[in-house]
Amino acid sequence: MNKVIYEISGTGKVTTYNWMMKSARLSLHDASATETGRFFNSMNVLVYSAFAMEAFFNHLGSHLYKDWESKERKMSKFKKFRNFNSDLKLNHDLSKEPYSIIFDVFDFRDSLAHGRTEEIERKEVVELTEDELRSYTIGSKWMDSCNLENAEKVFSSVETVITEFFRVAGLGEYPFLHYQGSVYGLS
User: Fold this and answer.
1) Range of the domain at 99
2) DSSP string, 15-82
3) For residues 49 and 158, is the Cβ–Cβ distance under 8 A?
4) Is a pLDDT exceeding 80 seen at residue 74?
5) In the prediction, which pLDDT does 138 show?
6) Contact (CB, 8 A) for 171 and 164
7) What is the CATH number of the domain that holds 67?
8) Residue 134 confidence (pLDDT) above 90
9) For 183, phi and psi rounded to 5 degrees?
């Protein structure tokens, strides 16, 4: 089939937090389905859940505040979370789950984004099969987080917090429906 050059113009909207959640959801599915690559799929769930939460904060902020663009770069993601909790009059105890998990996943994301080579020394007693012993490693704190149980907990917590804040902010009932939309025409 021959390609033809078109001039297209229009407008669109991309809901970035939904794309990040979709990536996290697909990685969670893969981590659940097979042990092969589980560590990396779990890592992807954590990273993309953190990305989704931060993108959602920017989505929410732009709906709540006229001057969000100038505000958001001056606030840490932790401060954004605290402010939304207060400004939406939720006043949750952010040290309790699922809210505390949001701080944990941001710390995880930061440890990878600003990663360093680490010297690790540990002494521990572990119960392992012979096969598990062959692949056992002493890892860093972020590596210890990359497991299916934690990935499930983080994904669920992020999904819960986004859903709650979305509803309370009056944005609707279903925060994960819209990925993008556009209107364009051919010239």
Assistant:
1) 13-72+86-115+146-172
2) -HHHHHHHHHHHHHHHHHH-STTHHHHHHHHHHHHHHHHHHHHHHHHHHH-TTHHHHHTTS-HHHHHH
3) yes
4) yes
5) 80
6) no
7) 1.20.120
8) no
9) -130, 130
Residue 123 lies in a domain: no
φ, ψ of residue 11 in degrees (nearest 5): -135, 160
SS3 118: coil
CB 19 within 8 A of CB 54: no
Whether 25 maps to a domain, the answer reads yes
- Is residue 22 included in any domain, yes or no? yes
pLDDT at 76: 95
- Whether omega before 175 lies within 30 degrees of 0, making that bond cis, reads no
Residues ≥6 apart with Cβ < 8 Å to 50: 105, 106, 108, 109, 158
Q: Which residues contact 66 (CB under 8 A, 6 or more apart)?
A: none
Query: Distance between CA 55 and CA 124 in Å, rounded?
Result: 38
**How many domains does one find in the chain?**
1
pLDDT at 75 over 80: yes
Residue type, 5: I
The contacts of residue 155 (CB under 8 Å, 6+ apart) are 24, 25, 28, 45, 49
On whether residue 8 sits in a domain, the answer given is: no
